[in-house]
Structure formats: structure tokens, C-alpha cells
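[audit] Reproducing an earlier prediction to check determinism. Same input, same settings, fresh worker. If the C-alpha cells differ from the archived copy the diff job will pick it up downstream; this log only records the rerun itself.
[audit] input (292 residues):
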Amino acid sequence: MHQPVTETNIKAYQPPPGFFTKWRRRLINLAIFAFIAWLLAVAFVWYSQEKLLFHPDPATPNHKFDLTNTSEVYIDVPGAKLHALYLRQPEEQSRGIILFLHGNAGNLETWFTHADFWLETGYDVLMPDYRGFGKSTGKILSEEQLNDDVLRVWNFVAPNYHGKKQVIYGRSLGTGLAATLASEISTDLLILVSPYTSMTDVAHEYYPWVPGGILRYPLKTDQVLPQLRNKILMLHGTDDKLISIEHSRRLQKLNSAAQLIEIDEAGHSDIHEFPSYVTALKEALASLSTKQ
């Protein structure tokens, strides 16, 4: 028969020799294993940042775009050529230019949509593909390279619009690039659709175990926005699950000139389909008077 468990028995029990040493060794080995696994995961993120952040969809060089009042142009950047679509108003009736900086996936085939809408606004639109996207050549290597490419695209088109309105439009990934460009040039309106405070903040939300300092693409919109003195319009869906609307709410507090319009029930990828988004965008563009 088993002896009943009593306080005396418990006090009398002595673990076998080496019991605590064995478990201490196991815990140390487990901690070492976890640390090595963390280091390997961090190293993977470091070396794979471009693949994790950018999802380009290349297009064949001979692919043709059949779009109203739109032509294909190529812009030289160091070591590559950026392909862009250039929509121009008929009979040179343009009120100005909109540089459209798109998100982190796909290419111009999926991003350059609703040409009729842009024609109705009265503005010309230039939308480039980043390196490796669509028919653009080269490879994205750094945030500095991205910003330099965007500036070169702007310098390619802006001289044609002296005396007219000049607008920068960024969506998702493109919002950080658009804000940085707006800090370097003079522009009449900056439009940010589904922006983020920084890519570091977004990464922390998805990968809280990754040190922010290892990110080569911090894209710190929150550091750029307070410096801007031009008109700023932000549009963000209340149901955005990819980049929370809280990013836009925090950004709005950083610049008194920033207007935030929250698009009820809109998500990240369908915000442009909501009438309130279309109305807000049309009104913002129409409100710009002819530059003197």
C-alpha cells in the first residue's frame, strides 16, 4: 500500500542528486536555442527586407497598354529605366499634373485604373512603376535610391507644368515616398491615401520581435509631415486591416494643415470604390485655383 501524503512525508522528500542541475541545464539550453532561433529569424528579415516589403509583378517588355489619352514613357535613373504611364488631357486643357506613387505590389496594369475619372478631374497624371515592377528595369536596393528615383521622375515631368497646379498623390507604400518628395519640392497639394506613420511602426505591429533598428526602409512619414507647409489631404478607410486608421489619426496631429477624411467601412484595397472617397478627391482637386 502507498503511504498517505503528509506534511512530514513532503518535508522528508529529497530530490535525487543532480535533479536541479539537470533542469537548470535544460532551461539554459532552451534559452540558448530560443536566442539562436531569434537571431536566425532577425537575420532572415534583414536579408529579405526587399522581398517582404515589395512584391513586384514584372511585365513583358512588349506588353501594350490600350488606354484613353495615355502614352508610355521611360525615365532614366542611375542603372535603370523606369516605365510610366502618362495620361494627358485632350487639346492641352490640363489644369496641372498629378504624380501618382502606387503601393508595394502589382504593377501599372493593376494600378492604372479609372482613366475616365482622372480625365474628369482636368489633370494630367503620371504614374511610374518602381524598379523591378512592370516594365521598369533594375532592382530596389535602398530607401535613398527609392527617394532619388521619385525625385528624378518629378523632375522629368514638372517643368512642363509651370503656372499650373502640381499635386503629389501617394497610396499605401507610396505615401511615405510622396511625403518625402513634398518636403524637397514646392507643390500645391499632397494627397496621402492609407498612409502610415512609419514603416518601422507597421513592421513592429506585424513582427514585434524584430528590432526596429535593422530595417533599411524605415520610411518615417511622421518625421517628414511636421515640416510640410503645403496643403495636405489624407484619406483612410475605417476598416483598413493592413494599415490601421490610427496611423492617419496620429499623422494629422503632427501638422495643423493636414485634413483627414475617414472613409466609413472602407478597407485598404477597396477605398477607391467608395463614393465618399471619390467625392473628397474631386473636391480637393477642384478647389485648387489656377496658380499665378
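[audit] rerun output stored. Observation attached for the diff report: The chain is about 35% helix and 20% strand.
[audit] end
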